[in-house]
Design brief:
The chain contains 5 helices and 5 strands. With 202 residues, the chain is of the alpha+beta class.
Length: 202
């Protein structure tokens, strides 16, 4: 880094040198991890989904929740502070976010995000070359922005498993609205449809 750089230039130089484009190489690592742990990874996702559906069924039997219309799988960005990629699987009736009965389970997608977490320690060391113009908070923000790329990989994984999710026993047993949709995105934020029943209104 040139000592003449201001903070903004230093941040850009740091990003270009140590962060930008690294995710492309990480795809190979993620793919290899998945191949080695496929059964465990698949089963953990399906189990988390089943747990949410099972809880919804219990609430429906108690008359506390209506037919399931929305299942929302959301990335919890706060989990990044603890070096884990946690997705929350929420089950809602037709009231959507106004559904008062909390019904969720958690799934960790660390197999996708672990290269990003591993990079954090190295970045903390590399920032010392930038004379305090790059802080730990700056690094955290860069990693959060990069996480969008890894989230896209997680979306592809989830979409590939939808067929198994909707065949699971807990999902089949749960009372469902004809227009049920499964979404994924960020918690109570923008999302993408992973699955929609016939006639579903996104």
């Amino acid at each position: 880094m040139s000592p003449m750089m201001d903070k903004q230039a230093a941040l850009q130089d740091f990003f270009d040198s140590y962060v930008s484009g690294r995710w492309q190489n990480d795809i190979l690592l993620i793919d290899e991890t998945y191949k080695q742990q496929k059964e465990q990874i698949d089963s953990s996702f399906i189990l988390a989904f089943d747990n949410a559906c099972r809880l919804a069924s219990e609430l429906q039997e108690q008359g506390l929740k209506g037919h399931t219309q929305y299942i929302y799988i959301s990335l919890l960005r706060t989990s990044f502070m603890e070096n884990t990629a946690c997705y929350r699987i929420d089950v809602y009736d037709n009231n959507w976010f106004l559904d008062q009965e909390e019904c969720f389970s958690l799934w960790e997608a660390d197999f996708i995000f672990h290269p990003l977490f591993d990079r954090r320690a190295a970045l903390e060391t590399q920032k010392t070359d930038y004379a305090r113009k790059v802080t730990s908070m700056d690094i955290e923000q860069m990693l959060l922005e990069e996480a969008e790329l890894y989230h896209m990989l997680a979306l592809a994984f989830m979409r590939s498993r939808v067929g198994e999710l909707i065949q699971s026993h807990a999902y089949q047993e749960m009372s469902k609205h004809p227009n049920l949709c499964i979404f994924s995105g960020e918690y109570k934020d923008r999302s993408e449809i992973l699955y929609g029943e016939s006639g579903a209104d996104a």
